[in-house]
Amino acid sequence: MKLIEMNTHDFAKAEPRLCFWPVGTIEGHDLGPLGTDVIAPEKLAADLSSDFNALLLPTLPYGLVSSLSGYPGGMWMAEDTYKSLIFELLTSLVISGVESVIIFNGHGGNTDALADVLPEVWKATGMKTAFLDWWSVGADLSKQHFGSAGGHGGADELALVYAANPSLVPETWDGSRAFLYRPGVKAYPSPRSAIRYSDEEAKPLTPESARAYYDALKAKVAAVVKDIIAGWADFNKLGE
């Protein structure tokens, strides 16, 4: 179910209690689309929502951008604006009876802000919230399938974009165009709009490896979501 496609009567009848919310940002990803961080979490959340009978909220495509802000096409907001937006949109759902929201985050620059604001949503309203940085959940899978070809604008992100729309993905990607991240080094803007986090052997992206990685990632994320929901169900029974 997509909230954006429902009328108010449909919503009232369905009485959704759990929502999935994809969030991302718009920034450079070299040969990948500027909306990579939007397309990726939206695909995951949409594919998993029916498995959990979760209502899919409209994707929030705008977030925070720092080192990639120098690249054309980026769009972002101030951190305080972002936190207020997240807080106000989540708390507005409480009046509709939504009890819990799991955010599928597509952008690492949003992580700290989400970690700051979600506890405030819980304390203010009692709404249970969680967020998943999918690339962290699937880090071992990325290393297995892509080696050092993963990363920002890398094979793991491109694999999710491929799952959503193969025409948006370059024919080949081996990480050789990416800037190598080094601990203790910061540059503004980033020297390249693709970033790899390891100089180990690269395993190039192919349609086969993209599909295999996405299927494995989806299963792993589903297991995490299932664990979160089960824990919340036990929380609701405290004292019984």
Which series of helices and strands comes N to C? HEHEHEHEHHHEEH
Global mean pLDDT: 97
Uncertain segments are none
Which structural class do the helices and strands define?
A: alpha/beta
Number of strands: 6
Beta-strand share of residues = 5-15%
Q: Using only CA atoms, what is the Rg?
A: 18 Å
**Largest sheet, strands/sense/barrel:** 4 strands, parallel
| CATH H-level superfamily | Creatininase
SS field, number of helical segments: 8
User: So, CATH architecture?
Assistant: 3-Layer(aba) Sandwich
Which features does this protein show?
alpha/beta; Rossmann fold; two-stranded parallel ribbon; 10% strand
Short description:
The chain has 240 residues and is an alpha/beta fold.
Description:
This protein is of the alpha/beta class and about 240 residues long. The protein has a single domain, classed as Rossmann fold (3-Layer(aba) Sandwich), CATH 3.40.50.10310. Helix content is about 40%, strand content about 10%. It is built from 8 helices and 6 strands. The strands form 2 sheets. A 4-stranded parallel beta sheet has the order 2-1-3-4, with helices on both faces. It has a two-stranded parallel ribbon with strand order 5-6. Helix 2 (about 35-50) crosses helix 7, helix 6 runs antiparallel to helix 8 and helix 7 (about 155-165) packs across helix 8 (about 205-235). It is globular, with a radius of gyration of 18 Å.
SSE blueprint and pairings:
Elements: H1 8-14, E1 18-23, H2 36-49, E2 55-56, H3 79-92, E3 100-105, H4 111-125, E4 128-133, H5 134-137, H6 139-146, H7 155-164, E5 179-180, E6 195-196, H8 207-235
Parallel strand pairs: 1-2, 1-3, 3-4, 5-6
Helix pairs in contact: 2-7, 3-4, 6-8, 7-8
